[in-house]
């Protein structure tokens, strides 16, 4: 409940850069983010995992947004999963026109509240950073790690969504290098064959299951947290 109230209070600050159609979209994204934030999955006593991500984590386009890929972490790992997602966001500070919704900005809000006690932070995205500069992505990447503190981190890179496939390799390579430089685990998903919705950008429910299972397998292979 506390995390939802934080999101509602903070939503009034989201739309500094948005106007017209952007504003309406940002309002929808904020509502979807708040709803997904409230839909924690998995046993209360399970390993606490916080997911910070984009529209894939929120389940944009699904009839059942709560079936987005993080739900597979609860199903496959028995984890207690908390999703702090926002459609259109990324590592870069200006990947979204909806204000301060970058991964780093939301990590600062999600982790001290509902994420307290989290053992693992999964950061998923990159498709919205295809137009961002390397320096902006790197700055946002470091901000996420600062907020994560001593928690274990898994960075999950962008899949080759048909609508942006040509631009994905550069972002994937940069995130892989940043992860190696900072000593955090990285999962490249560019080789996954996933079913997409008609927009060529968002996953079907079957795609979410396959993507989530790949992330769950990567988590299972992580070394035990110290």
From TrEMBL:
The record ties this protein, via Pfam families, to:
Lipase_GDSL_2
Residues in SGNH hydrolase-type esterase domain copies: 51-210
Name this polypeptide is given: SGNH hydrolase-type esterase domain-containing protein
Q: What is the lineage of its organism?
A: Bacteria, Bacillati, Actinomycetota, Actinomycetes, Propionibacteriales
């Amino acid at each position: 409940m506390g995390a939802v109230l934080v999101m509602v209070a903070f939503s009034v600050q989201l739309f500094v850069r948005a106007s017209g159609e952007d504003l309406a979209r940002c309002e929808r994204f904020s509502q979807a983010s708040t709803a997904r934030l409230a839909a924690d999955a998995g046993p209360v006593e399970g390993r606490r995992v916080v997911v910070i991500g984009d529209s894939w984590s929120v389940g944009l386009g699904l009839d059942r947004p709560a079936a987005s890929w993080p739900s597979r972490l609860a199903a496959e790992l028995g984890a207690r999963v908390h999703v702090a997602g926002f459609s259109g966001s990324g590592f870069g500070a200006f990947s979204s026109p909806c204000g301060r919704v970058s991964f780093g900005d939301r990590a600062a809000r999600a982790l001290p509240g509902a994420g307290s006690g989290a053992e693992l932070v999964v950061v998923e995205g990159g498709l919205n950073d295809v137009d961002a500069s390397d320096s902006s992505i790197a700055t946002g990447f470091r901000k996420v790690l600062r907020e994560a503190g001593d928690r274990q981190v898994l960075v999950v890179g962008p899949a080759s969504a048909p609508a942006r496939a040509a631009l994905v390799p550069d972002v994937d390579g940069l995130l892989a290098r940043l992860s190696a430089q900072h000593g955090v685990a990285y999962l490249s998903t560019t080789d996954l064959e996933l079913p997409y919705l008609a927009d060529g950008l968002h996953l079907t429910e079957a795609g979410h299951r396959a993507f989530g299972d790949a992330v769950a397998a990567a988590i299972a292979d992580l070394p035990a947290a110290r």
